[in-house]
Structure formats: structure tokens, C-alpha cells
Fold each of these.
Amino acid sequence: LSYGALRATWRPAFRDPFRAALAPETLRLPYPDTDHPPFDAPHDGLAAACLEEARRRLRDAAELGRAPGAVIVEPVQGREGVVVPPAGWLRGLAAIVREAGALLVADEVLTGLGRTGWLFDVEREGVVPDVLLVGKALGGGLPLAAAIAARPLFDVWDGGGEALHTATFLAHPLACAAALATLDAIESERLVERARGWEPRLRADLHALAAAHPPVARVRGVGMLWGVEIGGAGARPDGERARRVVEQCLERGVLLLCGGPSANVLELTPPLVLAGDEWAEASAVLDAALAASR
């Protein structure tokens, strides 16, 4: 929510109160959301159409003297409703970004450290970004985030003494110790493999819930990151009903989050140490909450 991040985020509720203070140079490229396409294109051709549009916009910006310095992308969009792009799109985007002479910045604050069944989700596509952003799970519950890049990229911060970009609690020792312990646990407890192994069951159970509750329009996700969309598919997105489901689940001890532009997507991010009986209880709670929200 800092000024720099507000320039990059799309969400108007975050941006609008500060719009007058935000620099206007940010260029937005289309994301291939097959459930809600950014423009008319065949379903199986949406990824290619988005890539071609990205190439055109980056080329036009360069011709206007506004060559991009970096392109920031979520390999899976999180708060926008768990949007999983088609296979091959991220690889294509990486190639276009390199053609434009820009850096590829992968925002894996949500998806990183095993959430999608890969240590970092870019690995699903075999993409190596220039900068990798991580946070949330990194600190094991303590506040910590990191930007990972090759050493030459960090030379720009070298002011010959004091760091040019810093903060009072940067690299807090306790949070760093927690992060090291978290990374050890992810590896020793094989949590990335656990997340990947959970995907078939979560997919099957959530699709079964969707079939039992027609207001559920779509289910999408990967690993242990899933979105259950309420409404849509010929009906208006029902954010109010999604809110009621979240409240019903909260009363029964299960935490969900409303995501998506219309706040109508139930976002599920269970812990990577999830046990079978815990999921059985949580899915029963979600089943009851969907029924009670009518």
C-alpha cells in the first residue's frame, strides 16, 4: 500500500484516495483470465492474444520514449480471485519482456514457498525472473519480505556508505531467524510436495461442492490456493452472498477471504501442514455455510 505499490496495483479502492499523488507512468498489460477475458478472443486463443497485446503496448511505449524498466506479474493472481493463466503464457510474457529490454519481476508474495505445489510458482513454467518478491509465509508468522535478485541489480542501491533505500526494522533479527527456521521446515517436512499432493483432492471436493450449490459458478486453483466464485456464469457476481458465506464459516471456525473485483470469490489458502480430518471438517463447514447463505 506504499506509493510505489499503489502505482502497480489495479484495485481502485486502494488507489483512488491517493490517485493525485501517484506518478502516471505505469502501463497495464492484459492478464489472460479465461473466465473473465479482458477483451474478445477465442477461449483457446486468449493467452496468445494477451501476449500480442502486451508486445504491442510495450513497443508503443518505447516509441513514445517511455521504454519500460520492468514488468511486474503475479504467476497466479491472488486477491483478484485466484486467476490461473493458461499454460505457456508466463513463458511467453518473459520472452516479450526480455525483447523489450526490461526486467521481469515475479510477485510471489502469496504464491511462493510452496503454496501452489512448487517452491516458487514460476517453476511451473520454467521461468527465471530477474527479481523475485517473497513475503507472507517467509517469516513464519513474523513480518518479513524480501526481494531476490542477482548481485549486479542490487549495485544500484550502493551509495558508497549508507544504504540508499532502507527502513528502521529492515532485516529484523528475530524475523530473519524465524525465516531461516521456516525454510528449514519447508524442506525437511516436504511441504512443497505435500501441497502438490493435496491438489487432486481439493479440486475434486470443491467441484463436488460447486455441483451441490448452484450459486457456485466456478472453481479454479492450483496446489493449495483455490478460488470458489459465487455468481457469474450468466448471473451477476454475488459479493453479498460471498460475504455471508465467509461470516458463516467464521462462526464455525474456518477462515476464508472474499477476493476478486466484485469480492465474490471465496479464497481458500489452507496451511501446508493440513491434515485429512481438518480438511474434512473445513469442507463440511463450507458446505453448511453455502447452504445457509441462500
Amino acid sequence: MTLINIDTKLADAIHRNYLLIPVINRFGIRLGFGDKSIKTICKEHQIDPEFFTAILNTFTFENYFSEKKLKAFPILQIVDYLRKTHTYYRDVQLKVIDFNINYLIESCPAPNNHLQLIRKFFSEYERELLAHLRREDENTFPYIQKLIEIQQKEDKEQLFKELSKKYSIKVFEREHDNVDEKLFDLKNILIKYLHGDYDQVYCNAVIFELFRLEKDLVEHTRLEDKILIPMVEEIELNLTGKANDKK
């Protein structure tokens, strides 16, 4: 397994895994960068090249997930990336799937009850996913920001005690739904049980986009579960003054 590194041409990385295109877009990078290396492009966009390559490798290689390396990055850098990923889901990916489903239904020569059920199923899933993202944007990420600010205060233990009455990362863990499970069910319905007259091209487009979203969500959730949550738990422990007891 040859990992992507800062000297890799970004175009070559995309040829290896086209699913990286929306990932690099989240960093503000648009296509048309020629044969420039990742190092050069990151310098132009003021991006940490090591963090950038860690994310690209996570998405490209199923067995790659360097917890030690990822935990070495500032936690707010990870939060910023997660926020941008949320924006991508809301503003791009969900809308693309919604558009393709509508097009699939409209292209049918006759009403198809199976497709109407799929439309309803996806609408319900979309509402749940958006609610999930909103909880993180409005509760979890601001909480982490406050933790970072509290760390710089002299009375940090007392401030954390007051803050933890309202929220903690344990609340996030309890509310952290497996948002990719229902997505699998929706794919399964389309693949196994879709009947009636429908346009196969549009149907395939819907399925491809669902697979793409599922893959993205798996990596997104893994980053939250394996990196973000442990990092926040460590900060919380330090703010209680019990970090030494743990050791």
C-alpha cells in the first residue's frame, strides 16, 4: 500500500480514487490544478499538508486509519473539517440524491408506487440526518470550542464544572446515531425489491450517489468516534484535575 504523501501530485491521487473530489472541495480546492503536488497546492490554499494527506489516505485506503497521527492535530482543525463536511452533505450530496430521485419518478411512463415509497423513505432519512448534523453543529462543536477556551483560564476546573452541567461528550455519544444504517436499507430496497417500469439510467444514478454518501458517512463517523470523542474526553479529564489519577 503506497500512501499519498505531500509530494504526490493531487491529480494522481484523484486518479487513484475519484471519491476524493468532494473531499478536496471541502478544503476550498477546485479542479484545474495541473500537475502541482499536494505540498504546493496546500501552500497556495494555506492548508496543513499533513492533515490533508491524512484525510485523503483515510478515504482512499480502507485499512488506513492512523489514530496516533490524527490525534496529533489540533482538535479545532478536526472540528473545522467536520463542519465543512456537514455543509457538503446539506448543500450538495443530499440535494443531488433528492434531484435524482425526483428525476427518476418523473421519467416513469406510469405511476410507480415502489418509487413513491422510496421517495418517502429518503425524505424521512434526510430529515433524520439533517437533525443529526444540526445537533452536532449547534451543541457538540460549540461545546468543544468552549472547552478549548476554558483551558486557558485560571479557574478552569470551576468553569468546566458549570459547563458540564449543560453538556458533555457523553451526551454526544448517546445521541450519536448510526446514520449510515438506514442508508443501507434504502440501497437494499432499490437493488432487491424495485419493480414496475422505471428508467434504469436514473435508477443507477440514485444508487451510485447513495453508495457515495454511505462511504463518506462511514469515514466521517469513524473520525468522530475514534479521534474526536477520545480527544474531547482527554480534555474533559484534564479539566477535572484527574488526569494524573488516570495514569
Amino acid sequence: MKMSFFRTLAFCAYTTLTACGEERPQAAITFRVVDDFGKPVEGATVAMSTFHHWEPGEGFGKDVTDIFTGETNKEGIVTITGQSLRGEFSYSWRPLPGFYRGGGGKQKFTSTIDGKWQPQNPAIDIVVKRVINPIPMYARKVGEMPNVLRIPESGKPIGFDLIASDWVAPNGKGMTADLIFKLERRYTSVEEPFEAKLTVTFSNEGDGIQSVLAAPFVGSDLKLPRHAPEHGYAPELVKRTGRPAANKPIETATREDQNYFFRVRTVLDEKKQVKSALYGKLDGDIRFDVINGNPAYLLFTYYLNPEANDRNMEFDVKRNRFGQLPDLQRPSSP
């Protein structure tokens, strides 16, 4: 079947375009792969990919990419060249034994001179993280369907036991209120103006939480620092969501790059110094859903180091203290 004139124009707009008279200028990028201690990584394969053409098919069809690769030398350096129609590249590295997966990003060129993308041969560092000391931890994703975690009631502080992974009695089997959640809400329907506030507090003086930003799906599987901070924990965290007025979008403080460290079960000495405590981290933000939950569903992923005063946050995925969890409850990163 012959392609119509208009379909030919569309094909030339979205497919190889080389056959339609469009050139593909050359790009070069020099990568330097180092570990998180600044040491060069030799023998790492770096790959950069770029759009090649659009291929008609089911639905809207699909984009086909070109991939160019190279291997780092003793200095951890490799220069990779390749042609690109759009001048946009994604880059990543293939993991080596003893390293966590991840480490990559994007490079967008802005113009061409004499058939070469500009700026010519930019230098990009890729930082990859070594596996140093992964340890057993209590690690769990809570609140995902169908294993939802419903806040039992609003207007009342309710404790959650991280080791039992349940609400404290009488709402669950937990014994220690590590995290205390209090939901306050004014809600009638999703179309109407509403507001809801979730406050997170703790049981002990010295307990607390602190923010750490790290974008998801970018960088290492070990996206947060290896050790929780020794200081800087706040005794309270407040999350809000709501619709300020009819026909206005829902507003929320949830961020895709939001994560937290926390400290619980803290015991202070006579000088108010930490004598004993447990440290952990939250992978991603704390989310709560008052639209589908009654009064709300709660969603978060946590890692708790069970050894007192040990701030190591490098989780051994093969040694979860909860055992082999179902996929919906299993954290996806160390």
C-alpha cells in the first residue's frame, strides 16, 4: 500500500529524516566516572542514547533510539561520539561488581557549527557509589494497594510501630509509638473546597525527622547518604493537601525528590546528649489520601536500622528483617 502525501509528510517529520534531506550533526561527550570517594573507575561502560526516528505502529507508534558506548580508561575517562538529529542525549553506565546501579543524566546541545553540535565535547562527571557495608534492616513499603494502611480516625494522635509495622494498640499489634500521626481534615467531596493536615510527631525527647532531597530514578540506587546525620532532627513534620476553592486544582506539599532521615527510641543522658537511639530513613515523601480513604490512606516507605546508635543506612536487600515480603510491600532500593 502506498503512503499518502500527508502521511509521507508526517513520516518525514517524525521518522529517520535522513532520507528526507535532514542531516544528523555529530556530537562528542567526554565522561569521567568516579566513585563517591573521588577515585576514578576503570573499565566502566558508558552509554549515551539519542532519538533516531519514529516508527509507525500500534497506538502512536514508538521512538527508536541510537545507542553509542565506550569504556573508561585508568583515569575513568572515555570520549563517546555519535550523530543526533535533535542534539539531546541520555547517558548512563553499566554497573560493575561492587557498585550500586545508577548514575546518569541528560545532555542537550543548543546549536551546530560545521556539522557539529555545540558546545563541542562537554565534560561530564558520573558519580557511582560503591557497595561498602550493607546491613540487615527493617525495610517496608506500606500503604500500596491492595495492602492499604488506613488512618484509624481523624483528630487524634495515633502511634505506628516501625518494628511491628503496625499501629499501636488498640488500633493494631504495635507496642512502641515510633511515629505518631495526627490527621485533621475538612472534607465533603473531591469537587468541593477541602483541606487536610497530617502532623508527624514522636514519643521521646531527642526523636525527630529531617529532610533530605534526592531525585527519584536519577543517580544511584543508594540515592541517600550512607549514614544518617547525628544532629539536626526536628520534633515535628506537617504535611498539607487541599482544594482552596471550587474549580481550583488540588494543592499538596508532596515532592518527588523529598526524602527523610529520622531518629526514634531515643534515650538522653543527664546532659541531654543522645545515649541511645535508632536511626532510619524514608525513601520518598509521606503521602496521605483523604479523597479515596476514609478518613485517609497513608503511604510511605521506611528503613530502620535495629542496632542502637548505628547510623549506617546502607541496606542489604537480601537480609530484610521482615523476611521475604510480597512485591507490593518490598522496597525497591537500598
Amino acid sequence: MQELRMNTPEHYDLSDLEPSGSDVLPMESRIGGYLAFVLALIVVAMLPLTPPTAAIGSAGWLVVGAMLIPTLGVAAAMLADLGIWTFGRILAVSYFQLAILTVLIWLAGGWDTPYPRVMMVMILYVALIQTRRRISVFLVAVAIVLALPVLYDGWNPNAAANIIGTISVWIVLAIGTYKLTEIQRQQRIELHRTSRAAKLEARVDNLTGIGNRRAFEEALDDEIARSRRLSTPLSIVIADIADFKLINDTWGHLEGDRALVCVASAISGEQRGPDRSFRWGGDEFTVILPGADGDGANVVAARLRLAVRTSCLRPDAKPIEIRTGTAALCEGISAEELLSRADAGMLALHR
């Protein structure tokens, strides 16, 4: 398995993205919201035991209250699944929480307070979803925050040793969390790629290499919906090989297969950019023509007949002919009715 480069956007592949594919993260944001509420409750529970009065006295309570209100607001916004949370915004929330803890540690008296320990939860959350570079920068910021009490409380060897030991343990935990997440994400990406490849393979005709009937039906439904949404024309061409049974009966099924491959190649070669061709079944082919009205479809059908006639030959050197029918999408008709009209048009033209 090729190692996934976790500092690239592929690191974020198969996170809990919305079906639209936008960089919106309902699961990650909800986890962050729950953690923010839990951290706020932990802080509130510790405040009576370690009050924020060491630095500025009783005014520290007002500062803590002013910080807790936006913290709870952000947590509520993350839980509300507003569709606004991206990896960058989630990381910004983590830095916001780190800044609040920095102020709280200072208010309560420095390293000896229990508040620095709360940072471990934040580190694990960042390590769970962010890239290696972002995790490293966040760890540096945490180390700086832990070292700040040394500046305003003075040098203390025991405090310095505790800081070094604590940040070392947290780095190890962050690395372990990151590596486990990396392995899981790699497995999910490979599974997704395998599933996507299998899905594509299930929609390709094995003999001709163009889309099969299932792919045609899905594509037609999509194009009909797009045509009606954008008020643009849409047409289809249906074609089959004239006297195909004669080819099989006279020269065998291998020659029949060769004829099918040649016809499919000729039809595909005449496609415009948005057109898509399919083997509908047996010796029948279909072409979806986005942006083409009925007259445009007739022009394409004539071009397809000429392309097959000039490039595909039977074993007796006679040209292979195809019969075609066209239909344009009208208001109120279904995909089945569109196909039925094209099929009826083909039969009417070649009786």
C-alpha cells in the first residue's frame, strides 16, 4: 500500500464530509463541541478549588466568566451542525481554547494549578483530525503556554522538569493518536478506491469498453434532471446493427463480437465533448446528446451511420450498416417514454 502523504489535502480524504463533497465536517465538529462543553464543565468544577484570584484578585472571576460565555457559544455552534465547520475553523477553535487556558493558568497562579492538564484533551483532538504540520505547530504553542509561568513566577527547576516531562508525554500521545488515525484513514481510502473502481467496472460493457445499460440508465436520469433544471435541450439516439443475426449465423459469434467492437468504436469516435455512448444490450447502442434538440440529434444520427458504414466491414467486405432513431426530451415525458419514442422512430424509418 502506497504511503499516504498526510501533509497534503489527501489527509482529509474520507473524513465525515457532507454528500455535496464540500469541506464541511458534521462529525468532527460535533466531537469538538462535546469536548468543549466537557472542558468547560471541568473548569467550572475546579474553579471553587483553584479560584482565578492569584493574579488580579476577585476581578479574575469576571474575566473567567467573560471567557466561558464565548466558549459555550462556540461549543453550541459546533454541536448545532450549521454546515460552516472546516478543518481550518476547527483548528482555530482549538487555538481559541488554548488562549483561554493560558489566561486561566495565569489568573489561578501558574503551573501548580490543575488547569494545564486540561490541555491533553485538546492535543488529542487536534492529533485526531489535523495534519502532521498543524499538529506540530499546535504542540509548539502548547509548550510555549506551559513555559510562560516560568517567566512570571520565576525559574523553578522542579517546575521546569515537570513541564518538560509533561510535554514529552503529550507529544508521545499525540504521535500515537496521529499514527493510528493515519492507518485507519489509509485503510478507508484504499477501501473507497477499491469500491469506486468496482462501481465503475460494473458500469462498463466488457466487450466494447463503453458504458453498459446500467450506466446508460443512470446517466440518462441525471441528464434529464439537469436538462429540466437548466431548461436546456436533450436528445438521444438509439441504434442497432442491421442484419446482425446474419453475421453471427454465417461467420460465427467471434465475427459478431468484432462487429460490435467496431461499431462501438465508430460511434464513440463521433461523439462531441458532452455526448456519451453506451451498449444498451445485444446489438443495440444508445447515445445521450446534452444540448441537442431533435434536428441536432438527426444530424448526429446521420453522422453515426456514415461513420459505421465507412469504418466497419463484414467478413465478405460489405459495409456494416446501423439503423438509428432519435427522440428529443419534451415536457412531462419520462426516460422510458423518451427511449420508446426513439425506438419507435427507428422502426418507422427502417421498415
